[in-house]
Structures are given as C-alpha cells and as structure tokens.
Amino acid sequence: MLRLLARAVLIFFAFTLTACSPHTAALRYQGAEAGAEVVWPAPPEVPRFRYVGELTGEDNFVSTRTGLRRAGAGLVNWLVGLSSAKHVPTVLQRPQSGVAGDKGRIYVTDVSRQAVYVFDEGAGRLEVWDSAAENTRFVAPIGVALDGAGGILVADAELGFVARLDARGKPVSKLGEGELLRPTGLARDAGQGRIYVADTRAHQIKIFSDDGRLLKAFGRHGEGAGEFNAPTFISYANDRLYVTDTLNSRVQVFTAEGEFIRTFGRRSLFVGDMPRPKGVAVDKDGRIYVVESYYDYLLVFNADGELLLPIGGTGSGIGQFYLPAGVWTDQHDRVFIADSFNGRIVVLQFLRGGA
After folding, report:
1. 113: phi > 0 → left, psi -120 to 50 → alpha, else beta; which?
2. Using an 8 Å Cβ cutoff, are 158 and 140 in contact?
3. What is the DSSP letter of 247?
4. Is the dihedral of CA 224, 228, 232, 234 positive or negative?
5. What are 292-341's pLDDT values in tens digits?
6. What is the DSSP code (8-state) at residue 57?
7. 259: Cβ–Cβ under 8 A, 6 or more apart, which residues?
8. What is the dihedral of CA 217, 218, 222, 228, to 10 degrees?
9. Is the pLDDT of residue 38 over 90?
10. Contact 233/185 with Cβ under 8 angstroms?
C-alpha cells in the first residue's frame, strides 16, 4: 500500500513540476533584509557608501519553481524512505578576487574550492568552472580578468600559468607557462590588448600580448621606486597600472609601459596605513580602493592617494571583514570585496549624490 501511495505521489509531482511554466531565478543579495540601511560614513556625516548585501552561493538565486521542486522532492524522499538525502548548497569557501562581466555575470575565484564561481544574473543561476586546461583542474586560482572576447583569464599561482576560458567555461589556451613563477594578480588593457600579470615569486610585473607573447617584464626585488617585495593584486585604469606591493606595504602606480609614477601607503599601525595591502581597484571617477588585510579594512583613497574613508574592522557582521583579499568595481558604481575567511563577497553601492 505504501509503495502504491509513494508511486502516486511521484507521478503527481512529476506532472505538477513539468506543467510549471519556465521561471528564471532572480539574483538576490543575502543580508539585504537585515534591517535598517547601513551607510558609511555614519550619520550625521553625508553618506557615500551603502551596504547592498552579500554573494555567498546558489542561495543568492531565488526561484519559486526551485522552491516547489525542493519541497516536492523532500516529501517524496520522506515517503519512500530517503529522508537522509539532503541537498548541500554550493557556497563560496575562500574567495580571492573577481571581475564584473557583461550580461550581469560576476566571476569570483575561490582558492579553497579550486574553481571560478560564475554568478550569472542573466541566466539566473550559479556555475562553477574548475577546468584550467585539458585534463588539468585549477589548483590555486587567484586573479581573474575579462579577455575581451566574451571569456575570462584566470591566473593560477600553483599551476604557473594564466588560463583562458571561453564564455561557457571551456579552456581555450594557456598563457605564460614556463615564464611565470607564481602568477597572482591579473589585469587587462582593453585598448592595447595587453595582459598584465603580477608574478609574486619573481617580484615582477609581466606584460603579455593577447595572443600570449611575453612583451616585457619590469621590476625586481627591493624597496626602491619601481621595485617590489611580493606584489599581489593589480588593477589597470585610465592608462595607469596600480600594483599592491604587499610586503613593502604600499601601492605603486605605473604607466602602461611600466614606468614608475608614484607610490602611496606605509607600514604603520594607524587606520589608513597598509601593513598588508592586497586587492586594489579604481572606479570610473578615479577613486582607489585598497584592501588592507592585516587589520581587515577597505580603504578608499582619492586619485592622489589621499585617504577618504576606511570601512571595516575584524568580524563577520555587516561592514566587517576577516582576511579580505580582492576588490573590484563595476559600471553601476558598486564595489565588491572578497571577504575570504567569511566565505562571501560583500557588495557596497557608491552614493553618487553624496560625494
């Protein structure tokens, strides 16, 4: 009798779910429903950034049809004695950096999952890409950049090359194999078709053409202008290359050809200093965002490297970070921070009317 009942329920749910009209899941930022609006700086100062929410994994995509499927599957499993089979959601583990693509895609590297997460708002789903090359999986994906042809470039620190993936996540080619020791940060000059790679172990920045030819390498180990001590993340904007010179506790700025322009930041204990800078990004108005990972801050500077605002502090609450890594911006004035040990991407909105 129980078997007949279970069979009837299975048939019923199969018919019901098949009959449902197609539904595209919407992207929702977790934490956005937490309560009162959170802004920086706090009142009575004029607010310049607003907390939007977090990206954490597949639970960012909300679908009534998905909910119905899960509810139906749960009931059926209970009826047939399979209640121990539980859905384990796909979530970020140790995100490192990211980039905002077209059609609402957000690409995030995750060094613990050894993959690239694709938050695809247009398609309404989360994808996980873990292939760096044919028969080769990612080991330590760090930097990611758009390749200008609909795909992405991913720097893997352990594999020692930059992987090019197409728009479906299929590996297309490798760049820098045999020429990179430990590639981490990644940026691309779309105008000139050049790819910049921070080679942390070599204490250099290496410039490649879009077809993978090494054009130039600049920098050496040291503390002087144009010298590096373990550079990590980089950003290219407005014909300038910004490099977090991590163990020298500073950000250095160069021309597109690698000529030194200036530096800012120092090793000290005050908020706004940079004991361990990691991610760096520049928005369309020239503001510079630097992740200070030692004290868990996002630091906002003007185009001249003068501190405008610190956001953060150690913790897991709204506006707090725990060993943050990368930072990037998009064309909608949003700022994304890879809050690594909290397993999330924190999203802020720049309030244009407040600047």
Report:
1. alpha
2. yes
3. G
4. positive
5. 999 999 999 999 999 999 999 999 999 999 999 999 999 999 999 999 99
6. B
7. none
8. -90
9. yes
10. yes
Q: Name the region of 30 (left: φ>0; alpha: ψ -120 to 50; beta: rest).
A: beta
Residue type for position 117: Y
**pLDDT reported for residue 50:** 96
10 — phi, psi (to 5°)?
-60, -45
- 106-156 confidence digits (pLDDT tens): 999 999 999 999 999 989 999 999 999 999 999 999 999 999 999 999 999
* Whole-Å CA distances, 253 to 11, 145, 187: 64, 19, 14
> According to the 3-state scheme, what is the secondary structure of 62-123?
ECHHHHHHHHHHHHHHHHCCCCCCCCCCCECCCEEEEEECCCCEEEEEECCCCEEEEEECCC
Token pair 């119905």 is found at 68
* 324 upstream amide cis, omega within 30 of 0: no
Give the integer Cα–Cα distance in Å for 147 and 189.
10
3-class DSSP state of 3: helix
Rounded-to-integer distance, Cα 143 and Cα 182, Å = 11
Tell me how far apart the terminal alpha carbons of the chain are, to the nearest angstrom: 70
Hey, how many other C-beta atoms are within 10 angstroms of the C-beta on 86? 9
For the record, the structure tokens of 295 come out as 């004290």
Q: Two tokens at 57?
A: 């994994």
φ/ψ region of 323 (left if φ > 0, alpha if ψ in -120 to 50, else beta) reads: left
Q: DSSP string covering 130-168, please? A: -EEETTEE-SSEEEEEE-SSSSEEEEETTTTEEEEE-TT
Tens of pLDDT, residues 167-186? 999 999 999 999 999 999 99
Prior bond of 41 cis (ω within 30°): yes
Whose CA is closest to 327, among 355, 303, 305, 298? 298
Q: Mark 94-130 as b/e (b = at least 16 C-beta within 10 Å).
A: bbbbbbbbeeebbbbbbbebbbbbbbbbeebbbbebe
User: Would you say 345 and 94 are in contact if contact means Cβ atoms under 8 Å apart?
Assistant: no
Radius of gyration of the chain (CA): 22
